[in-house]
């Protein structure tokens, strides 16, 4: 669940892309680097550069279509807000086929994900619910707040996923280390904060191999691929310890992917790599000329050569400083609220009576 601050943050990112496009940067390159439209990378070897091809009226979202059909050929339009996020649109061409107007367009989609401040708010809400559920009752409190309770049945001790929640090893550990009627603390995964109530514990059963065969196969193949790529990357580094020429390494191995030059802010994405905290951490302390890697990314392992480190563009900063100041103030307010709430919890004189009743 995102809030107004998250929306503003993503809108500023979209406006920054428009500024770069107006300064002459390549649309397809930026789209392949930044777009979060999964259809753009349906084939990782043939990225689409944000292209949507030709479309008629009535095929896409209304906000997107209105902006595309009203714009002139060659225009950059946006940011356009739809249910999927903010779009930066380029109108490539226009034509009329059998009296039907058509547009050929490309776009960059930036989805609106919760920022740190929003996550802190959600965590506080979940934590307060967990505390009050102990006193007022899990189901009674959820009903009074109009919350929908999701059932997660059939958990096993080795489970990784929880129905309606996703990855949740912490929730599984809670279930197998507490008694019926227990309420968990706030538990977080990549998508949600959840509070769990242990409704029933059934007698342990033996899982058949057939029930888990496909999961085991997929897990094995995924781990095998990751380990193979990591071993290959380490052998490349070992065999080129003296002078690592990334271009020559690529020419000697057609299965590798090579990008001669790309640029991005540390918080952004790099062509072919995308976003990676490992990349950010390595680059934060790097110098011009350094060769970094292998570093894990969502697509495998990466080597980088630092070509240049640019100074902050002050004109760009001046243009956006008020919006940045507003965003920082909101984050600061959220942090103060979170610290105040945590101090109340730390100093509260509470006793957990759950085990006296169950």
Distance between the termini: 34 Å
How do the strands of the widest beta sheet line up side by side? 1-4-3-2
CATH class category name of the domain at 4-110: Alpha Beta
**Relative strand content:** 15-25%
Helix content: 40-55%
Quaternary organisation = single chain
Q: How many beta strands in the DSSP annotation? A: 10
CATH topology of the domain at 4-110: Chitinase A, domain 3
Please name the CATH architecture of the domain at 4-110.
Answer: Roll
In DSSP terms (H or I, runs of 4 or more residues), the helix count works out at: 11
Q: How confident is the prediction overall: mean pLDDT?
A: 83
**Unreliable stretches:** 354-358
If you compute it from the alpha carbons, what radius of gyration comes out, rounded to the nearest whole angstrom?
25 Å
Main beta-sheet annotation? 4 strands, antiparallel
Overall, the morphology is globular
Structural class: alpha+beta
Q: List SSEs in N-to-C order.
A: HHEHEEEHHEEHEEHHHEEHH
Structure description:
The chain is of the alpha+beta class. Among the domains are: 4-110, Chitinase A, domain 3, CATH 3.10.50.40; 209-305, no CATH class. It has 11 helices and 10 strands. The chain has helices spanning 4-22, 27-34, 62-70, 116-136, 138-144, 169-175, 209-239, 246-251, 277-284, 314-347, 354-357; strands spanning 51-56, 76-82, 85-97, 100-110, 161-162, 166-167, 187-188, 193-194, 291-297, 300-305. It has a 4-stranded antiparallel sheet with strand order 1-4-3-2. Strands 5-6 form a two-stranded antiparallel sheet. It has a two-stranded antiparallel sheet with strand order 7-8. The longest helix is centred in the last third of the chain and has 34 residues, at 314-347. It is globular. The two termini are 34 Å apart. The model is unreliable at 354-358 (pLDDT under 50).
């Amino acid at each position: 669940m995102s809030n107004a601050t998250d929306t503003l943050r993503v809108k500023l990112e979209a406006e920054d892309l428009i500024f770069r496009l107006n300064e002459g940067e390549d649309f397809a390159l930026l789209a392949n680097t930044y777009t979060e439209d999964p259809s753009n990378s349906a084939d990782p070897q043939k990225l689409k550069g944000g292209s949507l091809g030709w479309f008629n009226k009535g095929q896409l979202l209304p906000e997107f279509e209105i902006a595309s059909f009203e714009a002139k050929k060659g225009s950059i339009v946006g940011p356009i807000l739809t249910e999927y996020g903010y779009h930066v649109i380029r109108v490539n061409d226009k034509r009329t086929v059998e009296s039907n107007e058509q547009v050929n367009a490309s776009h960059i989609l930036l989805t609106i994900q919760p920022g740190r401040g929003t996550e802190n708010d959600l965590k506080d809400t979940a934590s307060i619910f967990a505390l009050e559920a102990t006193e007022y009752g899990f189901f009674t409190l959820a009903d009074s707040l109009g919350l929908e309770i999701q059932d997660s049945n059939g958990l096993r001790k080795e489970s990784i996923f929880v129905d309606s929640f996703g990855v949740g090893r912490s929730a599984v550990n809670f279930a197998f280390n507490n008694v019926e009627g227990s309420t968990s603390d706030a538990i977080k995964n990549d998508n949600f904060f959840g509070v769990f109530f242990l409704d029933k514990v059934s007698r342990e059963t033996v899982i058949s191999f057939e029930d888990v065969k496909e999961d085991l196969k997929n897990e094995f193949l995924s781990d095998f691929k990751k380990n193979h790529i990591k071993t290959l990357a380490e052998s490349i580094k070992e065999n080129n310890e003296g002078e690592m020429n990334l271009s020559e390494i690529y020419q000697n191995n057609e299965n590798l992917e090579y990008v001669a030059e790309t640029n991005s802010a540390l918080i952004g994405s790099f062509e072919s790599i995308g976003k990676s905290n490992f990349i950010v951490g390595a680059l934060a302390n790097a110098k011009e000329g350094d060769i970094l890697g292998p570093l894990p990314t969502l697509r495998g392992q990466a080597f980088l050569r630092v070509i240049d480190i640019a100074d902050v563009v002050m004109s760009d900063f001046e243009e956006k400083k008020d919006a940045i100041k507003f965003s920082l103030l909101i984050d600061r307010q959220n942090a103060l609220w979170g610290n105040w709430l945590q101090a109340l919890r730390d100093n509260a004189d509470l006793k957990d009576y759950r085990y006296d009743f169950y």
